[in-house]
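S.,

Sequence below, as promised.
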Amino acid sequence: MEEYIDLHMHTAASVDGSFSAEELISQCRDAGLRIIAIADHNSVRSLAHAETAAGKNHLRLIPAIEIDCTFGTVNLHVLGYGIDWRQPVFGEIEDNVSRQELAASQQKLVLTNALGFDLDKEQLEQLSPSGIYTGEMFAEALLQDPRYKDHELLKPYRAGGSRSDNPYVNFYWDWYSQDKPCYTEVHYPSLRSTVQAIRHAGGIPVLAHPGNNLKDRYELFDAIIDAGVGGVEAFSSYHTPEAAQYFLEAGKRRRLLITCGSDYHGKTKPAIRLGRMHCTIDEHEIEAQLQEYGLL
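The prediction came back faster than expected:
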């Protein structure tokens, strides 16, 4: 099946992204993509350069953002497609999250070393001059540190281990995501305020990779949609075929925009490739929906 749409990817404007907007657009062109969306974490800083580069490379770029938010006690990611990214609300969101993540990074360092390590800030500053340290960066620093080449905790993430397909991001999910030992709380905006910000900017809010964030709480899906979410990322690199089918059927039942996205970052997720998200429907159906929603 032809794969030419990828609506979820990240530049270096996301702390865990690897490439500039220009580099990422070139990769999209080389991968045969034609319709793309760059959706950085809580940031629209890359979009001006991305729009210029996409035009030069004859790609259709949908301006987007991926916003961390909360629904009750559950952390969600919501994609905003077709936004007027110049609206000041998006800069305010980025500033708010960045301030909190700077403080949380120091707490992450303490919690990580409590697992039996002795990392210092200098090791992490080599990976993030901004001072914001992600779970993926802790994984990279630890796996590169010769002191820990035989550490039991790290064995699943080394070559041949059970979590070695995407070792950095798997380390994040296992140790730094919500309810895990090194989780540090950041006060994200509510789902309702996130939906309002996206819609006021002319965009469509779409629930990102729900198979990851909802895990065994799929029963929350309808209430999330009732909060104003207009679409679901049914096809994601993270989803099993069963999860993809579940959210495809749930999205159709609720008459939602169905999207597909790889969540490509670069080195933090080496097994994830542009345009590869196990889409089981003809991508022309997704393109037709994008046109129907005024995104193309």
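The radius of gyration is 19 Å.

Coffee later?
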